[in-house]
Amino acid sequence: MPPQLYVAIAGIVLISLGVTVTLALRIRRLRAEQERAVTRAHEEFARDVHDLVGHWLWLASIKSELAYRRAAGDARLRGDLGEALQAVRHAAHAVRNVSKAHRHPSLHGESMRAQALLTSFGAACTVRMEAAGLSREVSATLGTVVREGVTNMLRHSAVRTCVIELAERDGLLRLTVANDGAPGRAPLPSAGDGLGNLRDRAARLGGTVRATAGEGGWFTLIAEVPRKFSE
Fold first, then answer.
1. Which of 167, 154, 161 is nearest to 218 (CA)?
2. pLDDT tens string for the chain (231 positions)?
3. Where is each Signal transduction histidine kinase subgroup 3 dimerisation and phosphoacceptor domain found (predicted)?
4. Contact 222/184 with Cβ under 8 angstroms?
5. Topology of domain 104-231, per CATH?
6. Which H, E and C letters describe the chain, residue by residue?
7. pTM for this structure?
8. For residues 223 and 208, is the Cβ–Cβ distance under 8 A?
C-alpha cells in the first residue's frame, strides 16, 4: 500500500476521532445544561409554592388559632375551629416538606412576608436594612429569627407597631424584631423552633440571640452575628 494511502487513512481516522470527541463533549455539555435547567425549574417551583401558598397558610394558621382561643365559650364552634386549625397546620407542614429541599429562607424574604402579614392584621410594620451582602447562611439564620419572632408576637401579643431592623455596629450584624404588644410580660418565640433553637443557630455562626422587655409593652428579639461571616 502506498505511503500516501497510509497517511490519508491515518488522517481520516484522526479526523473521525476528533469529531467523535467533539460530539461527545457537546452531548455532555447539553446534558449538563439540561440538568441545570431542570434543577432551576424545580427550585423556582418550590420557591413559588412556599412563598405564595405558604404565606396564606401561615396567615390562615395564625388567624384560626386566634379564633380558636376566642371561642372558649362555644364548645361546638371551638371543635370546628380546632379541626380547621389542624387541617391548615397539616397543609402548611406538607408545603414545607415539598419546598424545603430547594428553598433557603432569607432575611429579605422573611421580612417582606412578615410586613405583609402584620399589615393584614392591622399592625404597622417598618423594615429597615442598613447592611447588605449577607451570605446565604447568615441570611437564612436571621430570616428564621424574623419568622419566629413575628409568629410569636401574633400568637401571644396585641401588636400594633412592629420594627424589623438590621444594622452593623463594631463588626457585628445586629437584627432587632420589636413590637409594642406585650405589656407586663415578655413572651418567648413560639415552640415550633423556640428561643433555644434560635440561639443554637446563631451560635453556629459565633453569634447570640436574646429577648428583652422594655417600657410601654415593647418586647424585642435581638440577634447578633459577626460581620466576618457575611460576604
1. 161
2. 566 555 555 566 667 666 676 777 777 777 767 766 655 665 565 555 555 566 667 777 777 777 877 787 788 887 878 887 777 776 766 666 655 544 567 899 889 888 988 888 888 999 999 888 888 889 989 999 998 898 888 877 788 999 999 999 888 899 999 999 876 554 444 444 478 888 998 999 999 999 988 877 889 999 999 976 555
3. 45-106
4. no
5. Heat Shock Protein 90 (3.30.565)
6. CCHHHHHHHHHHHHHHHHHHHHHHHHHHHHHHHHHHHHHHHHHHHHHHHHHHHHHHHHHHHHHHHHHHHHCCCCHHHHHHHHHHHHHHHHHHHHHHHHHCCCCCCCHHHHHHHHHHHHHHCCCEEEEEECCCCCCHHHHHHHHHHHHHHHHHHHHHCCCCEEEEEEEEECCEEEEEEEECCCCCCCCCCCCCCHHHHHHHHHHCCCCEEEEEECHHHCEEEEEEEEHHHCC
7. 0.61
8. yes
Q: Give yes or no for a contact between 62 and 88, defined as CB atoms under 8 angstroms apart.
A: no
**What is the spatial distance between Cα 89 and Cα 99, in angstroms, rounded to a whole number?**
15
Cell 436571621 belongs to 142
Grid cell of 59 as nine digits:
396567615
Q: Give the three cell numbers for residue 58.
A: 401561615
Beta-carbon count within 10 A of 150 CB: 29
Q: Which three cell numbers stand for residue 69?
A: 382561643
**Which set of grid coordinates corresponds to residue 154?**
401574633
